[in-house]
Design brief:
2 domains, single chain, 3 helices, alpha+beta
């Protein structure tokens, strides 16, 4: 896709694929969530849809709730978890974009 406008115009084409992904997860008793991760050591950023078992903290999120897991030298096996209500879609999207721009300038690929 060549532009943001074209992407938005064609976004509905992904609805069936997303519904199929959700249905497959539900058959396995799982929940689909949109997640992102940043690995500072490898400088790798991932964003995408993932399926989680019902017992997983991410599966239990409701509404605009957010959860962040910090894996560090001291918290490698059992991460430090920060969870709470989010600001909602629009504010969160702008905050994530702002944070990513700052992060990318700090990393200096």
């Amino acid at each position: 896709m060549s532009s943001g406008d074209e992407f938005l115009a064609r976004l509905a084409e992904l609805d069936q694929q997303m519904e199929e992904h959700k249905a497959a997860a539900e058959k396995e008793g799982k929940f689909v969530r949109f997640v992102g991760s940043i690995d500072m050591a490898s400088r790798e950023v991932k964003v995408g849809m993932e399926s989680f078992r019902k017992a997983h903290l991410i599966a239990a999120l409701q509404g605009s709730d957010n959860i962040i897991s910090f894996y560090t030298k001291r918290y490698s096996d059992n991460p430090l978890i920060v969870q709470g209500v989010g600001a909602g879609g629009d504010v969160t999207a702008m905050g994530v974009l702002s944070d990513l721009l700052k992060l990318f300038s700090d990393i200096a690929w």
